[in-house]
UniProtKB/TrEMBL annotation:
<dbReference type="InterPro" id="IPR023747">
    <property type="entry name" value="Xanthine_Guanine_PRibTrfase"/>
</dbReference>
<feature type="binding site">
    <location>
        <position position="94"/>
    </location>
    <ligand>
        <name>Mg(2+)</name>
    </ligand>
</feature>
<feature type="binding site">
    <location>
        <begin position="97"/>
        <end position="101"/>
    </location>
    <ligand>
        <name>GMP</name>
    </ligand>
</feature>
<keyword id="KW-1003">Cell membrane</keyword>
<comment type="pathway">
    <text>Purine metabolism; XMP biosynthesis via salvage pathway; XMP from xanthine: step 1/1.</text>
</comment>
<comment type="subunit">
    <text>Homotetramer.</text>
</comment>
<comment type="pathway">
    <text>Purine metabolism; GMP biosynthesis via salvage pathway; GMP from guanine: step 1/1.</text>
</comment>
<feature type="binding site">
    <location>
        <position position="97"/>
    </location>
    <ligand>
        <name>guanine</name>
    </ligand>
</feature>
<comment type="function">
    <text>Purine salvage pathway enzyme that catalyzes the transfer of the ribosyl-5-phosphate group from 5-phospho-alpha-D-ribose 1-diphosphate (PRPP) to the N9 position of the 6-oxopurines guanine and xanthine to form the corresponding ribonucleotides GMP (guanosine 5'-monophosphate) and XMP (xanthosine 5'-monophosphate), with the release of PPi. To a lesser extent, also acts on hypoxanthine.</text>
</comment>
<dbReference type="InterPro" id="IPR029057">
    <property type="entry name" value="PRTase-like"/>
</dbReference>
<keyword id="KW-0328">Glycosyltransferase</keyword>
<feature type="domain" description="Phosphoribosyltransferase">
    <location>
        <begin position="12"/>
        <end position="149"/>
    </location>
</feature>
<dbReference type="Pfam" id="PF00156">
    <property type="entry name" value="Pribosyltran"/>
</dbReference>
<keyword id="KW-0479">Metal-binding</keyword>
<feature type="binding site">
    <location>
        <begin position="139"/>
        <end position="140"/>
    </location>
    <ligand>
        <name>GMP</name>
    </ligand>
</feature>
<feature type="binding site">
    <location>
        <begin position="41"/>
        <end position="42"/>
    </location>
    <ligand>
        <name>5-phospho-alpha-D-ribose 1-diphosphate</name>
    </ligand>
</feature>
<keyword id="KW-0460">Magnesium</keyword>
Length: 160
């Protein structure tokens, strides 16, 4: 799917904060965690919010990259993993899309609890806990990737 065929779902800092706190409420009802494993880079900000809410100070990272600038998934590139099987650990990422990242991380840490803020249908079965589902043809724009700018009124956009 090309970038222009996708629906856009821009997320503000306030919305991200509120939804990450909703995830924290969900997670505190599930159990105690040894610590958080943030999936870089998208999981870093949500992990910081969750860590603050759940009073967790032990935070590790799985460092990886897969998407290119044109929103197409590429080869998964693992830069840093973590040891063990993930037992008692909470994995935080911003979203699951195709589920490829989640599948890769779950194979590495099969006993960890995998949580995201957003989930698209293809990735949803791979997440233990998430808050908001968006359709598969939607691209989520996180606050760290966007800035406010002028947009045409809807009526004008429809005419062009
Ligand atoms: O379910 P998937 O299709 O695997 O997509 C989800 C992953 O893609 C994004 O990360 P990306 O690799 O783009 O890097 P980033 O976190 O640095 O933005 C996002 O943060 C998830 O980690
Ligand atoms: O910022 C992002 N928004 C998305 O919808 C997405 N899907 C995979 N990777 C993504 N990154
Ligand atoms: Mg990521």
């Amino acid at each position: 799917m090309s970038v222009s065929q996708q629906k856009h779902f821009p997320v503000s800092w306030e919305e991200l904060h509120r939804t990450a706190k909703a995830l924290a409420w969900r997670l505190i009802g599930i159990g105690e965690w040894k610590g958080i494993i943030a999936i870089t880079r998208g999981g870093l900000v949500p992990a910081a919010i969750i860590a603050r809410e759940l009073d967790i100070r032990l935070i590790d990272t799985v460092c990886m990259a897969s998407y290119s600038d044109d929103h197409r998934p590429g080869e998964i590139n693992l830069l840093k993993g973590v040891g063990g099987d993930g037992d008692g650990w909470l994995i935080i990422d911003d979203l699951v899309d195709t589920g490829r990242t989640a599948k890769y991380v779950r194979e590495m840490l099969p006993k960890a609890h995998f949580a995201t803020i957003y989930a698209k249908p293809a990735g949803r079965p791979l997440v233990d806990t998430f808050i908001t589902e968006v359709s598969q043809d939607t691209w989520i724009y996180f606050p760290w990737d966007i800035e406010p700018q002028f947009v045409q009124p809807i009526a004008k956009m429809k005419r062009s």
